[in-house]
Amino acid sequence: MPLTTVASGRVYDWSHAVGRGAARGTGFNYPQTMCLGKGGIVYTANRGNENNFGMHVNKVKLGGPGEEELLADFFDYGEGDGHSTWPFGVATDDQDHVYVSDEWENSISVFDTSGKFLRKWGTTGSGDGELLRPAGLAVEKNGNVIVVDSGNNRLQVFSPEGKFVGKCGKAGSGPGEFNQPWGITLDKDGNIFVADWKNHRVQKLTNQGKPLMSIGEYGAIEAPEDSYAVTYMGPFIAAASEKAGNPSPGKFNHPTDVAVDSDGDIYVADWGNHRVCVFDSAGNPITSLVGDAHVLSKWGQQSIDANPDMMKARRRVKSLEPQWRFCFPTAVDFDPETDTVIVADSQRNRLQIYKKVRDYTDFQANL
Amino acid sequence: MAHQDDIALMAHLMRRAGFGAGRDELEARVAKGYEATVEELLHREAQPPVDAYTLLRYQPASLLPGGQPPMGNLNWMYYLVNTKRPLEEKTALFWHHVFATGNSKVDNYDQLLEQIEIFRQRGLGSYRDLLLEMAKNPTMIFWLDNNQNHGKAVNENWGRELLELFSLGAGNYTEKDVRESSRAFTGWTFETKIPRAPYGRFPWKFEYRPEDHDDGEKEFLGHKGRFNGEDIINIIVQQPACARFICRHLYNFFVADEAQVPAWPIEQPRDPKAIDTLAGTFKDSNFDMTATLRVLFNSDFFKNARFQHMKSPAEVVVGTLRLVGGHELPRPGYGELSMNTAYMGQDLLNPPSVEGWHTGKEWINSGSLMARVNFCAEKIGDPALPGVRAIINRLKAKGTLSPDQLVDGCLDLLGPVEIGADTRKELAAQATAWGQTSWDNDSNAKLADLHTSQMLQLIVATREYQFA
Predict the structure, then answer these.
(1) Chain A neighbors of B72, CB-CB under 8 A
(2) Could you say which of A190, B115, B133, B384 would form a disulfide bridge with A207 (CB–CB 3.0 to 4.6 Å)?
(3) In A, residues 315-334, which contact B (CB 8 Å cutoff)?
(4) Which of B209, B237, B265 is the last residue of a domain?
(5) Measured between alpha carbons, how far is A178 from A196 in angstroms, rounded to an integer?
(6) Pick from B71, B195, B202: which is nearest to A230 by CB?
């Protein structure tokens, strides 16, 4: 696959990767969701594993290649305020307060930008204001917090202090209905986009919850003959990349997140198909990104430098292509300040960053 | 109303071809018929696969879990508990017993899970094809050092175990056959895989290196030629000893406990005619596991073998979890839950050696027995779990129960479980001490729930309950 993707007047240029597999510190541990703060800050909610480490939120300042910096770790595993069991959604408000959902504890915790615990709310149930497996979060311009109340197949709106404000949605596959939704984002007009995970679609709603548009339907990747399965659930690396088995545009396999850029283009983390699908604002498919991490991240390179055996092994590998590709990307965001698409590449415990190039001029075709 | 004998027979089938079934399922299956149920079990594609995406949503670390438990164990336990294709998963467990490959050396639970997935996909197909797949399986190649088996420096580990443990059994080949088999598999190795740092695990990929293969003439089990590995497998599967060896494994796993594998050269099968029958089908069907298992499950020797098999720890844990219900989602603590088989002596994905586990009575020692009883008693003693509640509700529907009726009802709905007179006397004594069991008012109902769950706990603690 090319490192620069040109399609329908858009150009996406792979920039760099950030992170490595790490339970704490300079890396990620199965990021479930991600959000952007001010000034190129990214907050990532890491799920961790059953040895009860790796659960946490980390705060990383991005930048150009090699400029990333870990600023804070918080909401790690444990009981009591400020600790988590299953961190899931993360969002920030205009004061840089960080809201995080815990889908096992059925709670929303709030931290300041340094990771200091401020408050939390949440009781288990399906009544107004009650939560069941809360997933993605988004903060409206007025400060209210929209919670993807996944187990109840609805969205709920809370005040910043956790007071119930409103709700929309119910279980089902019709407009405005949900089946275990995951991620959420708002566009500049406050419209709501939800990754309707088990319905294999993205829904666009008004800020009052009225359905406006639905994108996508089910379509799963199939293993091409003689391909290399990076996991038994894909991705699959075929000898010829164009035969990589990607389903048609507009087909999703358990989409997990959605982002909208400043032009209105829509990005969907097509988790089970190991790609990010790009649509125009009307929902027409533009292209797909499949991951292109051909250069190691800064922290990844440090791992290799510290372990000569790993480097020896890497130098004997016939093809590193499987390492370039997304493996169950869970989250996508667009940073309008830098025109970058940021993808949380969950099974690879890293972010992959693409630049949306505005001033791209084509090269001579006869080079 | 299903006949009690039909229920008992169906329960036997489901314990062996799966991991047991609750009474509602047993009654539904009896209504369909025994042979129809066998066909449904054999045709796994008729039922949906396990929803692996739900597992990954809640436990993403279970896909590429690396070398440390319990995330790999959690992954398989989720499949075992949730499968609607019980024979597919049971057959995967069978092949894991035979092609025993362990994390103690492989240090990659993800590769072991990939092997289990092969067993799911191919375990009910051709044994010959599965054997060839195992010969090319990088996890097996690493486990048995075939990556160190070179044209000019032969390593016999794979070549020997292929004959001794995977196909023929000791006594049915010579040391020269081991050497020649090993020579034929020189050059069968795997590519260097992308190492775990910095982005997690990547799988191996099989690689055949012709320059490292000994292409010279070989003499193997009476055949001569410039054999490569696939030729060796084609010769092996034609041996009468192969059919008998694999079918004895099937008998031991699905029908009744045999002697341990190392004793097979000197101890006759428990039922030689059954082995003959199975081996005949195995050979006539071109080594087809579905055809062979069809004959097995429909045979009288199978139907008459109730409680002739000591439950393996996997059968104890999975059977209990499926019976009590409430463990469908991979909740926090699922990893620890999945390690219970290890505490009972069966560390799934990590057998003690290439020989696999010793089975039958060797599952039991003072520690493992306590682990079994404690696990089962804890689960079955929780009336909040839906499967336990379902048992209580069925008893409640019968009205007030005498002590004998409570004992009989619990034995029936836990199996039916067959117990000896001494055990029954003990259970009846306890029930008598409690008096009548009645749900006729709130106070009595609370007591009735308690006594019923305690009676269930007593039953799962019996010697008889350890048999399937």
Answers:
(1) none
(2) A190
(3) 316-318, 320, 322-323, 328, 330
(4) B237
(5) 6
(6) B202
Residue B328 domain flag = no
What tens digit of pLDDT does each residue of A153-179 get? 999 999 999 999 999 999 999 999 999
Quote the pLDDT of residue A224: 83
CA distance B109 to chain A (A): 12
% of chain A residues with pLDDT over 90? 90
Strand partners, A217: A251
Q: What is the band of A248 on the pLDDT scale with cuts at 50, 70, 90?
A: confident
The SS3 assignment for B78 reads helix
Asked if A299 is an interface residue toward chain B (Cβ–Cβ < 8 A), one would say yes
Residues of B with CB under 8 A from a CB of A: 52-53, 56-61, 63-65, 68, 70-71, 74, 110, 113-114, 117, 191-200, 202-203, 205, 331-336
The answer to whether residues B143 and B220 belong to one domain is yes
In terms of domains, do B86 and B123 share one? yes
In a domain? residue B61 = yes
Contact residues on chain B for A349, CB-CB shorter than 8 A = 199-200
Based on the fold, state whether residues B102 and B181 are members of the same structural domain: yes
Q: Is the pLDDT of residue A267 over 60?
A: yes
Cβ <8 Å between B199 and A300: yes
Please tell me the distance from the alpha carbon of residue B460 to that of residue B23, in angstroms, as a whole number: 17
In a domain, B368, yes or no: no
pLDDT tens-digit readout, A268-320:
999 999 999 999 999 999 999 999 999 999 999 999 999 999 999 999 999 99
- Same domain as B149, residue B32: no
With a cut of 90, say whether residue A78 has pLDDT above it.
Answer: yes
Nearest Cα to Cα of residue B171 among B276, B261, B287, B237: B261
Cβ–Cβ gap B60/A347 under 8 Å: yes
Residue B85 and residue B30 share a domain: no
pLDDT in tens, A122-145: 999 999 999 999 999 999 999 999
B153 beta partners: B150
Domains in chain B: how many in total?
Answer: 3
In this structure, are residues B204 and B243 in contact, taking their beta carbons and an 8 Å threshold? no
The last residue of one of the domains, among B202, B237, B272, is B237
Confirm if A234 and A221 have CB atoms less than 8 A apart. Answer: yes
The alpha-carbon gap from A365 to the nearest alpha carbon of chain B, in Å, equals 35
CA distances from A266 to A262, A285, A301 (A): 10, 9, 32
User: A3 and chain B: CB distance < 8 Å anywhere?
Assistant: no
Contacts of B234 (CB under 8 A, 6+ apart): B128
pLDDT confidence band for A222 (50 / 70 / 90)? confident
**Most A CBs within 10 Å, among B112, B194, B340, to test the A interface:** B194
- Domain region containing B449: 381-466
Which of B56, B70, B194 shows the shortest C-beta gap to A322?
B194
Is residue B11 domain-shared with residue B122, that is, in the same domain? no
One domain for residues B88 and B228:
yes
Judge residue B109's burial from the number of C-beta atoms within 10 Å of its C-beta, 0-12 exposed, 13-18 middle, 19 or more buried. buried
Residues B38 and B59 occupy one common structural domain:
no
Instruction: Give the pLDDT confidence score for residue B266 in this predicted structure.
Output: 96
Position A328 confidence tier, pLDDT thresholds 50, 70, 90: very high
**Residue B79: its chain A contacts at CB < 8 A?**
none
Place A221 in a pLDDT band, splitting at 50, 70 and 90.
Answer: confident
Assess if residue B300 is contained within a domain. Answer: no
Structure token digits, residue B330: 């991979």
Q: Residues B149, B161: contact at Cβ < 8 Å?
A: no
> What are the tens digits of pLDDT across the range A25-38?
999 999 999 999 99
Q: Give yes or no for A124 touching B (CB within 8 A).
A: no
Inform me whether the pLDDT recorded for A241 exceeds 80. Answer: no
| Contact status, residue A60 vs residue A41, Cβ threshold 8 Å | yes
Q: What pLDDT, on a 0 to 100 scale, did the predictor assign at position A240?
A: 62
B192 CB neighbours in chain A (<8 A) are 313, 316-318
* Nearest by Cα to A149 from A141, A140, A158: A158
